[in-house]
Amino acid sequence: MRDKTAALAGTSDPATLIGRIIVYFVLIVAAVFFLIPFFVMIMTSIKSMNDIRTGYLISLPREITIEAWVKAWDSACTGINCEGMKNYFWNSVRMVIPSVIISTLIGAVNGYIFSKWRFKGSETFFSFLLLGCFIPFQVILLPMSQTLGLIGLGQSIYGLIFVHIVYGLPFTTLFFRNYYVTIPDEIIKAAKIDGAGFFRIFRKVILPVSLPIFVVAIIWQTTQIWNDFLFGVAFSGSDSQPITVALNNLVNTSTGVKEYNVDMAAAIIAGLPTLFVYIVAGKYFLRGLVAGAVKG
Amino acid sequence: MDKSVNENTKSTLLKTGFFNRLETLLPKAVLFPTFAIAAIFIYGFIGWTTWISFTDSRLLPKYELAGFIQYITLFTKEPRWWVAVGNLFIFSILFISICIVIGLLLAIFLDQRIRGESFFRTIYLYPMALSFIVTGAAWRWILNPNLGLERLVQQLGFSEFTFRWLVDSHMAIYTIVIAAVWQSSGFVLALFLAGLRGIDPAIIKAAQVDGASLPRIYWRIIIPSLRPVFLSAVIILMHISIKSFDLVMVLTRGGPGYSTDMPATFMYAFSFNRGRLGFGAASAVIMFLAVMAIIIPYLYSELRGTRNER
Q1: ipTM surpasses 0.90
Q2: Which of A179, A221, A248, B114 stands 20 to 30 A from B220 (CA)?
Q3: DSSP letter, residue A60
């Protein structure tokens, strides 16, 4: 790999130098393009409305104030409720944790079976399950909202948890199956001959080497479920809305004076958890992204 | 797999044989809940929606079949549907081509032994971690017709400058493209970068020995060899396009009027706000068929490809 890049960029004639300047210039301009919206968000969120009206979009605040943050968290109005983002933030937390844990655990066992306990028809079933990664969820919205109402989970966080587990399973199963396929079958055979059974092999042989794929699956599920909007808006009630739905209501509220600083503070609050995950575990985030999108 | 175990233990206790039988049943039993879930909540629900689309359901679902009326209305009597489909085409063509150009260009540049490569990569990819709702909220503010970009450029001295795409029914769809490109092009970059890293450097060296210039090598050798990556990127981005819902809702709510409607928002509006379930279901079925028409051939070729490799 280094060989190739050395071959491409190793010489030092003037043309190459100019080329490298252009390359760095483009990369930096692109970085600015990607960073500016977030920069604007942060700056706007710590300005007063007066400062926003009189200053520049990209200028630093004349006076830093956390008023907008306090309001966004505690008292901003989304529709008729004026309790800020805090309840919706915790709704999202309460929704994400159980659905991530359950869908990941079931996915791990499923992946283990699809890779190490294949039976007649299991491959076919696996490919049929995969379709679940691709369907546009519009095609299940109406039956799901009927069903949730029928089983008493309509408009509740439990309903959302249920939906996220169901439609997360194809992804988690895929992740674990593709990872476990790389574990040699001989190890499993040896364990069987030693008298280990289905669950014992899973616990003693498979689980100890599963940490990386658990990280990938947990990160993927966490970001997917935290960032979900469609299920949230279709299946939640007014007191069980996840934060994405509340944020959308906030920025689309047209009553009263529009407070852009509060909007931006709320948007950052909604984005921080997944951003944090990305920054501390970017490598795993990308791996899930590529596996979930390409292979799925 | 199980046979070898059976043969090993055949001579031992009968009890072991019983446990072995149990062992072969156990995986199926454990997998059964997932099987039931997939059968009901994926396939059953697709069937259910399809059924509703063939009925005259309004506020509540009805189950007497009424033929193709919903589809006929959709395709012949509902101008809003064609606006949504047209928008989907405009959006996906621009979104896919811009993402690929930016992604490929940045990937090639990043592949030139760049100092701080991982730093740049982190920056290009962070929008992907954000919800489309957060992205949309940010761009809604930046593109704000009064206090956003327009005023910034005016303040910089161009007092005649106007930029009101967000409230212009002809231009609003392009604001969705801007925000979507900002969010997703880093991901395309990551795909291309992985592809570039997989190219054998010997090929490039050989071309250089032959006296080919660097841009020529990229144009004639490297980029053509990335064809599978192009295919994956296009498929993934198409898939994102057809499903795009969040960004439209937060940026324009499908407006002004219904000028930025897309099939996903169309389906939602008719099913949940206007109480025309049968009609909404018909549009959902069309979306589903469109996605399947793209994904199934792709998956088929992918699966066949990996099998051939083995």
Answers
A1: no
A2: B114
A3: P
